[in-house]
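Holo prediction — iron/sulfur cluster.
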Amino acid sequence: MAESIHVPLSALLPGAGARETLPASSLGELQGGLTFYIETFGCQMNEHDSEKVAGVLVRRGYRQVASPDEARLVFYNTCSIREKAAQKVFSRLGEFNPKNNFGRDSGKRIGVLGCVAQQEGEQIFERAPWVSLVCGSASYRKLPLLLARLEAGERRVTGLETDTDETFETELTRRDHPFRAYLTIIEGCDKACAYCVVPQTRGPERSRASDSVLREVQELAEVGYTEIQLLGQTVNSYRDPSNRHLTFSELLLAVAETPGIRRVRFMTSHPRDLGSDIVEAIDASPALCDHVHLPVQAGSTRVLRAMQRTYTREEYLEKISLIRRARRPISITTDFIVGFPGETERDFEETLSLLDLAQFDGAFSFQYSPRPHTPAAAMAEAVPESEKLQRLQVLQERQRAIQWQRNQRLRGQVFEVLVEGASRRETQWTGRTSSNRVLNFTSSRTDLLGEYLRVRVTGAGPNSLTGEENSE
Ligand code: 5AD
Ligand code: SF4
């Protein structure tokens, strides 16, 4: 993927230079050049946090490299949503165990960021004493300070507070995607789903002021981004802390009206905070993509209650009807957890029947994974692993059939796609529809990356469509 550096206009304005001084760093002097490598695990929020962290590092004079071998500073931005994700990090860290490197200090500094950092805290130093920095996402504003301390030769630095009421905004965000810009509008989470580590690892909910969001959107449009993806764990719970008090749907409309912006997406929505105003906004503004990601997690009210999801099966289905009543078709995707403690075969049947009723356009599904310090971790009636796996397979197979059927109905229709990639064959391209479907298509033209084209659907599978450029 092509890389681009986005420098906000504010960084180029007079006065901004004062914050740009790059202190001569002992780490850099010792090691002949400041290079960093960052690998990201987990969700788009993490992906985007890494872009911002990279911006902080670039601002301090570091240069990004493509492999940990070349880097002086190696950062892992970690995910702990499920146990497997968290384990991955420790296997990465194991690669730097000095014992395996014949006791030589490679001069590298290793940093652990994100949710595992927040959750494990200083215990990371016990498990991997060669780590130098541990910092959770709610403390990223302190990163420049922590880096300065590392550069000055401190061996271990931490940023682990979650009581901050600030959001992480940087003067320089090093964005990885050439056309789509991620932008966090709300950080943390105030919901208390019984299975979820996010409220612990990302701290309390805090929204970013609407004028600051809109200023950045304008800057992004000016440097050529055409798609904006607004991010938040519960993005639609957005509450403007400024005097303007924009609602989430008003903010959506304002972002969509920014000249140069052609597509606006938002992820992830919580069912409880999805009101008709959001659907009306999508109906009113073609730039707002016709897609809502609305995790349901389970189809049985009994399980939803145990999960503390704050809605019933019926209330969720009511939200689905609200979205389906829109004037233009809006695709709906969701998340499921199977095998939550106490989930019976009958509860699972209700999940399957909800699948049939809701007719999702896509679904991510996971086996329940107990997480430390969550209410669900202490619940009795664990579902056996083999049963969880079997339920997962049944659910995925059923959903696959639904998607296939829904996608088949799109044959013959023409959609606008944003071209995101080329395949090895020169005439093959891949793009996304506004409804977030992947559409692989042929066109005899070249240089289509980043273009918006009209494509006719000629074939459909469960996970993607095929088509050809519409020449009419
Ligand atoms: N076990 C399994 N899946 C989980 N998710 C969140 N916490 C857990 C857990 N403990 C899933 C939910 C959420 C998605 C991002 O990850 O479905 O929507
Ligand atoms: Fe986790 Fe629930 Fe918050 Fe989503 S809404 S981040 S699942 S606690």
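READOUT: Residues 81-82, 195-196, 295, 297, 335, 337, 366, 368-369, 371 surround 5'-deoxyadenosine (ligand 1) (CB under 6 Å).
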